[in-house]
Structures are given as C-alpha cells and as structure tokens.
Amino acid sequence: MRIGFLHTAEIHIATFDALLASAAAAATAVHRLEADLLATAMADGLTSELAERLEDAFRGFPPVDVILCTCSTLGPFVDRVEADAPTLRIDRPMLERATSLGPDPVVAYCLESTRAPTLSLLNACAAEAGVALAPRPVFCEGAWPAFEAGDVDAFAEAIDAAVAYELEQDGPTSAIILAQASMRRARERIERRSPGTPVLTSPEAAVEAALRIAGGRG
Question: 12 and 184 in contact (C-beta within 8 Å)?
Fold first, then answer.
C-alpha cells in the first residue's frame, strides 16, 4: 500500500512518516513538497492558475493508492482535482467528526487563507449530517510567524492563548478544532487548560481515512 502526501511545509514529512508507521507499518509513504503553492495562495488567493499548478503536482506523483494533501488552504481544490489516484483533503475527516460533537465549535486557525476553506467545509459537513452549527472562528495572531521562525513552543503558546481568550470571552464550547495540521503541537496545552472539551486535530484522522481509501482499492 502506497500513500502519497502533498505538503506545503517540509516539517510535515517527519510527522506523517511517524503517523503512517504507527497506523500501518507495512504502508509506504511517498512525499512531494510544494511550498510555493501555499505562498502563492497567501499572496494571490485561490486562483484558477493555482488550481492548475496543484493538479500538475498531483499528477506528478509516482503510482500510489491515494494522495493526501496536508495543506488546509488548498482544500477546495483537492475536492475537484483530477488525478490518477483518489485524493483527500486533510481536514475533511476531522470536520466530519466535529459535526457530531455539538453546536458551537471553536475553529482556531493561524492563516487568514485557511479561514474560508475550513468554515466552508465544516458547514458543508454539517449540512450533509443534517445538523446546525454556529462555529466560533478564532485567529491565532502571532502564531504563524513563530512557526516560520521554527519556534515550536512560541507557536503552540500563541494558539493556546488565542483559544483561551475566546473561551474566557464567550464561554465553553462543544469542541475545539485546530484547523491546520501544524497546530497539533498546541493540542496538549489546550487539553490541559480545557479538560473534558474535545480538541480535534487533522493529521491522525486523515491518515486513518487515507488508509481506508487505499485499502478499498485493493
């Protein structure tokens, strides 16, 4: 079984190698790094030209059973890309689960380019599940510069602080969604501060879903 991973940050390669090895030791990871895709999306938005470049990146994979895109910002394109293998956007399994946890999830994000794709998919998942949600978006100011600087502790601290401030202002929530894969580094901090509240991250759920899709092709 061969699982393709399309990344826009090199740091994700080791993360998904470890997750895949833990979930299915016999599976092989095939990584492709396209950091410029996220940079372009942040600068220019989700343009038709960017969609074409993403499709070219998907088609550039060697034979795999499924391709998982680990960038939340590019998610809307992943759903309609044409490739030689099934494709999966990283946040779909996480957001599908979120629809069953309650009406007012906090949705934390570190990039403005991630906000609209995440909320759009969350609302679509809610509609498919027949539930009504009132998401509470939270921008984690200062987190992304720390991530780009390689300061993992400051990155996690900024996310935790932003979520904590939202909960102080508007009260408890049904769940806390960490919209981007890199944000899983803040999960333990948030869980300690908000015991009993589900804190959802995308990488683990996405790897499990990718394995199910790949297994179904056999």
Answer: no
